[in-house]
Amino acid sequence: MKNIIRFFNALCIVLVLGLITSCDEKETEDNTIDPFNNGSNQRNMIVVLSDLHLGPDLTYSECKNNLKALEKLLYKIKSSANVKELVIGGDMLDEWFVPANINTYNGQSQANYVQRIATTNKGVIDAFNAIIQEGKIKVTYVPGNHDLTITAQNVSLILPGINQARDTSLGLGTYVPNDLPILAIEHGHRYNFFCAPDPISNQSIAPGSITPPGYFFTRIAALHVAQKCSTPGDTLPEPSLNTNGSESQNLLYAYWKLWQWAIKSLPIENKFDENIIVTNINGFSGNYSVNDLIPFQLINGGEIDVNLYKGIQDNWNQRQILNKVPVNIPTYQAIVNAASATESDNQAKTQYFLNPNSNKRIVVFGHSHDAKIISYVNSTGQKTIYANSGTWVDHNNVAPTTTNFVVITPQTSDASTKTYVKLYHFKNEVVTKMSEDSMRY
Prior knowledge:
single chain; Purple Acid Phosphatase, chain A, domain 2; 2 domains; seven-stranded mixed beta sheet; five-stranded mixed beta sheet; 10 helices; 18 strands
């Protein structure tokens, strides 16, 4: 009888230990999910948020209705006894989504602009600062494309004490936690033709600029939203391939087609020769028109040229080297897939999992706003996990959900445990699990 009791007690201990070490969420008494409770007293969970798109003016900011939800979620994270790190995976402070006809800085400095964002989004910034100042949870910021040129100093201006994972070059960064070296968190714009830093083009026009063409696309998109425009005020000429052209001309034609799609998708009331895009940011000082961005031909079927970003189709390989892209992305592939969320997912696989020089088994991107988890196999046949942390914009035109976040719970030394990656969204103060995967490394 005593042996049976001992066996039963041992079995209970094993089951309890299994529950403590393998679970990264717990249901409360009212059956709601607490994604920040791993059922133990161990502080080991990593939460990733990205694409908050906090703006300086709620009349046009992409995140307005979701601000209160974000604030509440941050305080849930703060109160957790199990969250160890909170990572902001880029596009937190938005310099891009500003209607084209608005002077972004209002004639003042970037520091003033960042302070305006902090004032407009005070509840959220206060919540971040409460977590940082308490000191129990490490908060790390990784730059995205919408906050590409915002300096480390200006981020710290409103979030003093925040950790920043930055490359030596402005506008990029990858975060690898010290005690989880198989994990890499970056925004993902490094691999995007429209959104990766461009320190080569436009140097005679905007010395020192790293602003890529996606910035101008977003300014036009914000104007489209502000105008609520459905009927375009102008039309683009149909591009014509230069039949006697070189590979460079073929690539510029592909770039033209990309812009044609963008402008047709986001009509504006203005004529395309109007200088409506007010810059005064990152080396640019002029006002520009849509026509300054779109490739053109003086003769149908003749040479294709462009005003802004002249030669961009030829410098992509050099941009990749400067931006430290490990595996080269062919220029044509990069251009035609610049608007594809799937391409962003594929680059996580290409740059990390199929790259024999990479030891990463878990990768988290933001950027595409398309929250998901995908498992891959790496170059040595091991399981790997990719997650996209989605977005917090009010209206997500890419995927069916917003208010997303990712939670990673590392395995313990117990061989029966796994590392869990879980994706959630937070709507009407209810947490819903969207997807999960796990592995043992």
